[in-house]
Design brief:
By secondary structure, this protein is mostly beta strands. It is built from two helices and 39 strands. A hairpin with a 2-residue loop joins strand 27 and strand 28. The longest helix is centred in the N-terminal third of the chain and has 6 residues. It starts with 20 loop residues before the first strand and ends with a strand. It is found in: Cell outer membrane.
Length: 671
Amino acid sequence: MSTLTDSAGYFSLTGMSSATEVEVLFSLLGYQSKQAMLRRGSKESHVLLGESQTLQTVEVWRSMKDLTSINLGKLDIYTNPIAGADALNALQIYAYSSNVDETANPSFRGSEADRSRVFINSVPINSPVRNSQINGVGNFSIFNTELIQSMDVFPGNPPLIYGNTGAGLIDIKTSESVKNSTQLSLSIASVGALINRNLSQDAFTQVYANHQFDGPLLKLNSKGLGFLQSFRTTDVGWNSNWKVSDADRLNFYAYYIDEYAELTSTINFSNGLNQSGKRRGFFIMNYQKSLSDKLNLALNSSYDMGKSRIDFLQIDVSSTSSTLFNSLLLNYQKEGLNVTTGLEYNLQQSSMQGVGPTFYYSNHDSSQTQVVQGDFGLHILESFLHGTYSSNRMTYSLGLRKNVPLQHDANGIKGSDNYFSFQSYIKWKINTIQNLVLSAGRYHNYTEPNVMYQRQALNQTDQLALDYVLKQKSTSFNASLYAKREQGMSNTSYEFLESMASQREIFGLELSVQQNFWKYFRLLSSFSLMDASFDIEGVRYSTSNNIPYFFKNALTFSRNRFNISLTALNRPGTRYTRVINGNYIPEARAYEPIYEQQLNGSQLGAYHRLDLNISKLIPIKNNLLTLYFNVNNLLGAKNQRNLIYTPDFSGSSFEHFNGNVIFFGASMTLY
């Protein structure tokens, strides 16, 4: 007989023989199996150890774990009360996530989303979201949670082993081993399949395909998703790992997506049907080699290409993009010393062509239009050196990254600017359960051009942070103080005036606690406050996402493979610059907005949201059936998202975030 534990590891065996003592085998993918003799009616705890690998995997990231605010595994994402099984949405429950637009784009500590980067298997993935809008933000990540082994999150001062990131960083690693299985899934908006197969003792492969459709979901949630007209998405993925020898390992990862959506949206005072479609594919290769017991080498390479189209009133623009990435890393480890050096080359190219309104505030059927055409290209060649030394209870680290300025080539591809990044931290291990980390750094990244903001500019970010961590068996507590100064432009802001800001200053405090109690309950609670401002011509204004407070609370009950959770989010509304009047411009055939004197001097109503998530795991022989039921915005709160004006700006009304949304489905895993 067999059984499954719940998310906390509790289990019970029924229907056993009359023997007073039985032998039990504990097993979990990625851990060493363990056998133990159990007596009838006994209560015991058993811990599984991580599997030992014959191949010494190139763990060049090991020294950076001191800076990781949180490490999430596959189970953490699935049991996250707000994630909906999506890797990037799982981050929104934590204090360091300053996302205020209900999207999957990672936004950390007040910075815009285009200053953070997502890496998978040490390769950067630009635009890591699906259902993306005109300014590049999207509702879901493009990563299949079943393929994720771990996800390390750096909300501030990310390690300079990674490049082209200015605020935070997410490092995703795919599966290191699999158990032969087939997973079939069906929901009111999707159908999918995943196959895991061991090809030999030294190789495995994973293949999946999903298709999303709109009919049942939109009919059931016609009020809550009234702005969404239609959508469809088809994506396929492949991950394969091969241990070539005791010292060599190869991993291949490939992904393709075809998506289309129609929704009603408001951009730059114009409200209408927004149609968008995208086709994208990328391929990643990772090679790891153990040169000796102290020296390791890693080679990472990827190619990413895509084609998209946006049609919104008078905007009709098609875009193509491609990214080539290569990196070579060498890592040395010995007696508390960890040194990594490497070289990276990143070639980014994109082009846009179509038509758009001549005046940003005039986008309707009779608006004047102009040709939209732009070609963007960028060479980024960087070298880096990072070292960490640990002694007793102290850890010291220093990271340096320098680009090699390149000249414009014959195809008009821009050479990178001349810049130097650095980062350092000191960690004090107070005792076995408490750590204190002081970190600081200067970072550089390039914005990604999109239809709304056609620019490719270098950004600079200076960061300083103090982080305290306490971890016990059933309690964890985190506290952070941070300060940031950002220079450069943002390409993901909806606030037109704010997008012109050249300098931002952000100060913040984060507190979070996770407590397990009464055996079956878990409470995750966080509080953050932030003071964020930007500079235009020497005058400082509050940013649109300047949030004095943000409360996030999630209560989960788990027993006998049944989980139910309630999640509450509470914060003030975002700020905006109100239009107080309009001035008719004949050549624009529209009214030009006249703004209030104080930029971001007005504020939307407070944001309150309560979500309900229920799931049940049902073992069927050696297989597993998973049922889930979710209700987002359970109380149907009308949270204000934007202001919609009449054509002459004499009147206005509010555009709202999603209302009450019901979602349910099931998956069957066959072993």
